[in-house]
# Entry
Amino acid sequence: MHWQGIAHQDLKPSNVLFFEAFGAKLGDLGCADTLKNPSKSPRGQHIIPGDFNYAPPELLYSECSTDWKIRRLGCDFYLLGSLVVFFFTEGAPLNAVLLGKLHTAHKPLQWPHDYRTVLPYIRQAFEDALCEIQKDIPASVRPQIIEVLRWLCEPDPKRRGHPTDLGGSQFNLERFISAFDLLAQKAQYGTLKA
# Structure
């Protein structure tokens, strides 16, 4: 979808369908947005087009980049990372952990300033959330999963993505697909231990 200039915008557990024969597939494109004609997307002009509970932090603070790729593909990256957290923690979305680490004064509905001024607090809460999340990840894959989560869910949307792709094609999913594929193959062949 990303290669075609389409962002899903609503990646969450209930929109991932599992089929025995086909594996996991994405469903519910009702919040999708398109680079070619965002004004035609049903929710293309919404700051948070999908589920508020899974939205990346910048959107919770109404920080909406004018760059479509940062705003929409960056959102999909964060949502993908949140799915990873959900599946490893048996049901806790990343935002539940992240927002739980913030002082009340720094939470989205309380913060009276812009996102850039709250970003240091978000970044610290993110690191604290990763420390909590990592206990649920098998030790054999913990470093790799935490590293991928750091790249997918970086609190600064301009820095989200694979670090070697920043400033270019930072929202290229190929590196992440390869990383997840490698981990899946190791798990399939029994080289991962819990």
